Amino acid sequence: MRSLLIFTLVGAGAQLVDGALGMAFGITATTLLVLSSVGAAQASAAVHLAEVGTTFASGLSHWKFQNIDWRLVLKLGGPGAVGAFLGATVLSSLATEHATPLMAAILMCIGTYVLLRFSLRTPLTFGARGTSHSAKFLAPLGLFGGFIDASGGGGWGPVTTSTLLSQGKTAPRTVIGSVSASEFLVAVSASAGFLIGLREEFLANWPVVVGLMVGGVVAAPFAAWLVSRVSPALLGSAVGGVIVLTNSQKLVHFFDIHWPWSTVIYSLIVVVWLSLLGYAWRVSRAPRFAPEDQPVSEPESKSVPR
């Protein structure tokens, strides 16, 4: 019962981050599970099965708040489902001693990207709500994002959300809502891949699945509401730093790095993280401008002499 409550809180916290940033549920939850000695493939399987419920609830919440472009969901989510199935199959075929450092390395790279993306390149608020992305652009992006997500235990949001935001063609709230809704297809497909690859082990960690799912579903409506009120720069930088630090510990242990070099590595990560976090805090307090949202002043009408 105690472990179920802990995983419920983890699921709620991960969903709040995911709903506000459009990413990080999988990488946050998977990082915590791997650190608690859950196998890499089993952790990714549990997280994706839980995400079937959390992403469904998140999609409904974003739909209620009108944050979804369904054309973007279909063009991105379909290829993402294919990539997720392939990634789950690959991870399931690896031995535990090989899968754990591989997942830690992938998560650390994703965490570094999230940290730099939100601390140094804060997404602006664009005026457009629709999308002009073509299927030729979205299909490879979804395929790659889905594969990384399943094989690394997370990464769908960091790959797809950050790429779409950097294009500047769609409003951030629409990107986040659409990516969150399309992740449902990715989670279902990845779960099917793990079911085939792991068989009996797939449902062995049911308390983890139930806890993550319940916590995520409960937090999903509040997370969707948070999209327009939270500071992406500050929250993304904080989450990215936590992911980098926790997964670096796994790699340090795997490569058998001892004191004092392990302390040097951790200290360097913390110093860089706090510096970027401080910069993100200053950026989040600075005034933001959205030129497209400014009302266009109409020219003064000239009086016509009678």
What does this structure look like?
The chain is an all-alpha fold. The chain has one domain (2-286). Helix content is 75%, strand content 0%. The protein has eleven helices and no strands. α1 (2-21) runs antiparallel to α2 (25-35), α1 (2-21) runs parallel beside α9 and α6 packs antiparallel against α7 (156-167). The radius of gyration is 20 Å and the shape is globular. Residues 123-129 and 289-306 have low confidence and may be disordered.
Topology:
Elements (H helix, E strand, L loop, with lengths): L1 H20 L3 H11 L4 H25 L5 H24 L2 H25 L14 H18 L3 H12 L4 H27 L7 H21 L5 H23 L6 H25 L21
Helix pairs in contact: 1-2, 1-9, 2-3, 2-10, 3-8, 3-9, 4-6, 4-8, 5-10, 5-11, 6-7, 7-8, 10-11
What's a concise summary of this model?
The protein is 75% helix and 0% strand. The chain contains eleven helices and no strands.
Descriptive terms for the model:
cell membrane; membrane; 306 residues; TSUP/Inactive_protease-like; transmembrane helix; Probable membrane transporter protein
Number of distinct beta strands: 0
Strand content: under 5%
Assembly state = single chain
How many domains? The number is 1
The assigned structural class equals mainly alpha
What best-fitting shape do the alpha-carbon axes yield? globular
Which H/E pattern describes the elements? HHHHHHHHHHH
Low-confidence stretches: 123-129, 289-306
Provide the gyration radius in Å.
Answer: 20 Å
Determine the fraction of residues in helical runs and give it as a percent range. Answer: over 70%
Mean pLDDT: 78
Q: How many helical stretches?
A: 11
The biggest beta sheet reads:
none
Whole-Å distance between the termini?
Answer: 86 Å
Organism: Mycolicibacterium duvalii
Pfam family, one: TauE
Keywords: Cell membrane, Membrane, Transmembrane, Transmembrane helix
Membrane topology: Multi-pass membrane protein
